[in-house]
Amino acid sequence: DQQVKQNSPSLSVQEGRISILNCDYTNSMFDYFLWYKKYPAEGPTFLISISSIKDKNEDGRFTVFLNKSAKHLSLHIVPSQPGDSAVYFCAASKHGSGNTGKLIFGQGTTLQVKP
Amino acid sequence: KAGVTQTPRYLIKTRGQQVTLSCSPISGHRSVSWYQQTPGQGLQFLFEYFSETQRNKGNFPGRFSGRQFSNSRSEMNVSTLELGDSALYLCASSLVHNEQFFGPGTRLTVL
Fold first, then answer.
1. How many Cβ atoms from other residues are within 10 Å of residue A4's Cβ?
2. Nearest CA to CA, how far is A17 from chain B (Å)?
3. Closest to A99 (Cβ–Cβ): which among B4, B56, B105?
């Protein structure tokens, strides 16, 4: 039962262009979403998050959009840089005493930014 | 501020042995979560500790256990290792609800 899905295992874009990474979820109780970037042999690095009360959050080159009715979120990277090449994970969480400290992760999308 | 640290970074064990992994959270963070990452299953939640108490647990067998000390440092233990326990074990700490910061992980290989 995969509650968080990243249906594209990989994505390749040209340097300077926009990268759009997608994520779908099935559990309508999720109320907080995060994106992480991961390089090989390192732990995931927190990028950006969004609460379910918002539909957009921006931080520099990174913007996350949330469409609650479609249970879909996306991460936009503009402009893409070769250093952005990594695996990107979408994660979701929900409040409640039985859910503390628990993130549900998607399977990841490998982004390659070509110079 | 120093990030999350994990020791050791790499570990090789044989089936049936037990292993203890250590995690030091970011200073001031009291919540520590543990995850297992494998190629087939992705990142899966093991358990979370806060103020020395386990608050949440994932769907892993009882061979996986953990604890947290008064300084928020945490350890996880896996007993009677199986080949399928080979994975990257990640620790994360947080201050704000579920905005977690991860350590570099411990790569465990079971032979």
1. 23
2. 29
3. B56
Q: What is the pLDDT of residues A6-65, one digit of tens each?
A: 999 999 999 999 999 999 999 999 999 999 999 988 899 999 999 999 999 999 999 999
Task: Return d(Cα B5, Cα A108) in angstroms, integer.
Answer: 23
Q: Which of B43, B99, B109 to mutate to test the interface with A (most CBs of A within 10 A)?
A: B43
Please provide residue A84's backbone torsions phi and psi, each rounded to the nearest 5 degrees: -80, -10
pLDDT tens per residue across span B87-97: 999 999 998 66
**Partner residue opposite B31 with nearest CB, options A36, A41, A101:** A101
d(C-alpha A90, C-alpha B43), whole Å: 11
Contact predicate B46/B58, CB 8 Å: yes
